[in-house]
Write a structure and sequence with these properties.
CATH class: Alpha Beta
Distance between the termini: 58 Å
Number of domains: 1
Largest sheet: 5 strands, antiparallel
Number of strands: 8
Helix content: 25-40%
Strand content: 35-45%
Order of helices and strands: EHHEEEEEEEH
Length: 157
């Protein structure tokens, strides 16, 4: 069965806890997330989410993946399917790995499998990859701005 994987990572000057808090606060995604402007549901295994992805320059799409893993401060993973298994499936992973006390490596990746993967390959490599990179930069900006504000408050308080 055809398969394809996309990955994008970024270093963020924030704690794993802080990045996880932003990542799993779905209600605030419209404030900062250009790739996933809407998500509803709870980040708990077995829960079905309502998600809208919209890489810049595209119409976007809505889908309803199931959360398959939520390892606090480490990994959030969901599985989305087009109609039935084996047609076009995507397992999306967000991972947070501590590099130091105050720095993490955030990686967003997705493995696509199914009969339609070759048909969508060009759009995945162009649009979806761009969406990953846009979200990663936005997450970095939000996390680092909040971390800086917290540090300034502690220094003056």
């Amino acid at each position: 069965m055809p398969a394809h994987e996309l990955k994008s990572s970024i270093e963020i000057d924030a704690t794993p806890r802080h990045v996880w808090t932003i990542l799993t606060d779905f209600a605030r995604y419209p404030e900062w997330n250009p790739f996933i402007p809407f998500i509803r549901g709870r980040p708990e295994p077995g829960n079905r989410l309502q998600v809208r992805i919209q890489p810049s320059g595209t119409k976007g799409m809505n889908f309803r993946p199931v959360v398959v893993a939520a390892d606090k401060e480490r990994e959030l993973r969901w599985l989305g399917r087009l109609i039935v298994p084996g047609i076009f499936d995507g397992e999306h992973r967000f991972t947070i790995r501590a590099l130091s006390d105050r720095t993490v490596l955030f990686e967003q990746s997705e493995t696509f499998t199914g009969l339609l993967v070759p048909i969508f390959l060009r759009n995945l490599d162009r649009d979806t990859k761009r969406g990953f990179e846009e979200m990663n930069r936005a997450l970095k900006n939000r996390a680092e701005a909040a971390s800086l504000a917290d540090n300034m408050m502690k220094a003056t308080g």
